[in-house]
Amino acid sequence: MSPTPPEPEPGRSARPARPARPARAAALRVEGLHVTVGHGRTEAVRDVSFDILPGEAVGLVGESGSGKTLTCRSVLGLPSPGVAVSAGRIALGGTANDSPGSADTDLVALTDRQWQQVRGTRIGAVFQDPGSYLNPALTVGRQLGEPLRRRGLTRAQARRRAVELFEAVGLHDPERVHDSYPHELSGGMLQRVLIAVAISGDPQLLVADEATTALDTVVQAEVLDLLGVLRDRHGLALLLVSHDLAVVAEVCDRVLVLYAGEVVEEGPTAEVVAAPAHPYTEALLRVAALGRRDRRELAVIPGRPPEPGTAGSGCRFAPRCEYATTACTEQAVPLTPVPRTGRRAARCLRSAELPLTGVRERTDVTQRTEVPV
Ligand SMILES: Nc1ncnc2c1ncn2[C@@H]1O[C@H](COP(=O)(O)OP(=O)(O)OP(=O)(O)O)[C@@H](O)[C@H]1O
């Protein structure tokens, strides 16, 4: 976390008031990440920092275009053409050796070849639209078995391990699933297959980018439960990206709310959802499927976020903010600790005085069902 400390009072020391870093080694540490698009011409992600501890789930939430995918693809070393990390550091905790992705390695500096070693072993990933990541001409068991065989397992061992993994992600009749082609499985089953592939290298970090967005609400709830179970059972660190705060609230211990490429609020999810400190978070809560459906006031937040490079000098949300004053548009607003909270920060001049509304009840409109794992 990197909230900008407030100005010290006259006569007091300038000790930064940033929230303390957790004592345990982070599974992932992102520090001061800046990402440019258009071959370096435009900054689309600015100064994003966060840690994820082993066994912890952190959510990145924001509307389309807020910078979630640029951030998570940077963590995965998968930038699109013309996109680059222009500043910052990304490090994985855990192993203290000089292998790619060890605690001391800045992942930003890795070569493509080194990234290939890190992805699949240290970091697993699942995305939206699982069908497009699987070869329609091969059984899903073979597609999971091939990376296992590359790691030295015999054909029989790879089959046994694949069946175990399919069982671990809650697929019924895993032997039959093993011998099925992608078109023979439902969207939810395919997403479980991809989760099995993602965890097959025993990674410390699982990145899920809109992994449940294409699924119907019941299956979405089941897959979210599965991610939570994997985190709890295997101590996986989870980075969950979603446009829907309800999805993040289901699984994540902490949340970062992104707007126009900047973190505008961060903190423990339950606290942020119950009492948002930024008007954008409040607006996201109104459109999320959180709480009772009849409390949803808006289908979308009015207005549009600025395109990268077009925001004015003040708060980037000010043009859409019902609480904005002239002061909000005059100067950049730093991310500052939220008073009387432990690990929360917000980028709003007025957060201490605004009567922002949160969602206190955890009434779940996605009809959670137990996952058979
Ligand atoms: N390859 C690219 N070239 C130019 N601009 C890009 C590129 N990728 C992303 N952008 C711009 O950067 C901003 C952030 O994009 P990003 O994909 O990270 O948003 P997002 O929050 O993940 O949204 P979505 O949910 O729609 O994927 C957007 O304005 C987008 O148009």
From TrEMBL:
<dbReference type="Pfam" id="PF00005">
    <property type="entry name" value="ABC_tran"/>
</dbReference>
<dbReference type="InterPro" id="IPR003593">
    <property type="entry name" value="AAA+_ATPase"/>
</dbReference>
<dbReference type="GO" id="GO:0005524">
    <property type="term" value="F:ATP binding"/>
</dbReference>
<feature type="region of interest" description="Disordered">
    <location>
        <begin position="1"/>
        <end position="23"/>
    </location>
</feature>
<dbReference type="InterPro" id="IPR027417">
    <property type="entry name" value="P-loop_NTPase"/>
</dbReference>
<keyword id="KW-0067">ATP-binding</keyword>
<protein>
    <submittedName>
        <fullName>ABC transporter ATP-binding protein</fullName>
    </submittedName>
</protein>
<dbReference type="InterPro" id="IPR017871">
    <property type="entry name" value="ABC_transporter-like_CS"/>
</dbReference>
<dbReference type="InterPro" id="IPR050388">
    <property type="entry name" value="ABC_Ni/Peptide_Import"/>
</dbReference>
<keyword id="KW-1003">Cell membrane</keyword>
<keyword id="KW-0813">Transport</keyword>
<feature type="compositionally biased region" description="Low complexity">
    <location>
        <begin position="11"/>
        <end position="23"/>
    </location>
</feature>
<dbReference type="InterPro" id="IPR013563">
    <property type="entry name" value="Oligopep_ABC_C"/>
</dbReference>
<dbReference type="Pfam" id="PF08352">
    <property type="entry name" value="oligo_HPY"/>
</dbReference>
<feature type="domain" description="ABC transporter">
    <location>
        <begin position="28"/>
        <end position="285"/>
    </location>
</feature>
<comment type="similarity">
    <text>Belongs to the ABC transporter superfamily.</text>
</comment>
<dbReference type="InterPro" id="IPR003439">
    <property type="entry name" value="ABC_transporter-like_ATP-bd"/>
</dbReference>
<keyword id="KW-0547">Nucleotide-binding</keyword>
<keyword id="KW-0472">Membrane</keyword>
